[in-house]
Automatic annotation (TrEMBL):
Residue ranges, annotated region (Disordered): 1-21
Name of protein: DUF2382 domain-containing protein
Domain of life: Bacteria
Lineage: Bacteria, Pseudomonadati, Bacteroidota, Cytophagia, Cytophagales
Ranges of residues in domain DUF2382: 30-141
Compositionally skewed regions (Polar residues) per UniProt: 1-16
Length: 164
């Protein structure tokens, strides 16, 4: 129930306002209008990116330091009897040489040192070279502009290649 407002009852150009009173004694209804914005989002394809991975192989010579031990065995004939009542000779060392006496019991019950076995151990350092294959991956990124038509090749996902 909106009532018309007389133009003489509106604010004047000097800025003074006059009191607006309804005509018929009913309350004056002034509609208040409010605008509302509704914002919607939608996904729009603006371009595509194609990734291409290339695997490169290169041969490289790998040098590994190796350590090995070599043993030299030397038999030295002695043929000496052990003195009566003396203990039999035992294992002994002469620098890096290990001396192991070999004994034989003789019927006379005397010990005869038949021979000595001399074991020399030395360490030899060598370098072993072995070729190996190393893999190197390179990825190329290509930006493709947006197009409204989708070809069958564009709709397939990019599958990574195996580098095994």
């Amino acid at each position: 129930m909106d009532q018309p407002i007389n133009s003489s009852e509106l604010p004047t150009s000097s800025g003074a306002t006059e009191r607006v009173t309804p005509i018929s004694g009913q309350p004056l209804v002034i509609p208040v209008i409010e605008e509302q914005a509704i914002i919607n989002r939608e996904v729009v394809e603006s371009g595509r990116v194609r990734l291409t991975k290339t695997v490169h192989e290169r041969e490289e010579l790998l040098e590994l330091p190796l350590k090995q031990e070599e043993v030299q065995v030397e038999r030295v004939p002695i043929n000496q009897y052990v003195a009566d009542g003396a203990p039999p000779p035992g294992l002994r060392y002469d620098g890096d040489v290990t001396i192991i006496p070999v004994l034989r019991e003789v019927v006379v019950t005397r010990l005869l040192v038949v021979e000595e076995i001399r074991v020399t151990k030395r360490t030899v350092n060598t370098t072993h070279k072995q070729p190996i294959t190393l893999l190197h991956e390179e990825v190329q990124v290509v930006r493709e502009p947006f197009s409204n038509t989708v070809s069958p090749t564009d709709s397939s996902p990019v599958r990574p290649t195996s580098a095994e």
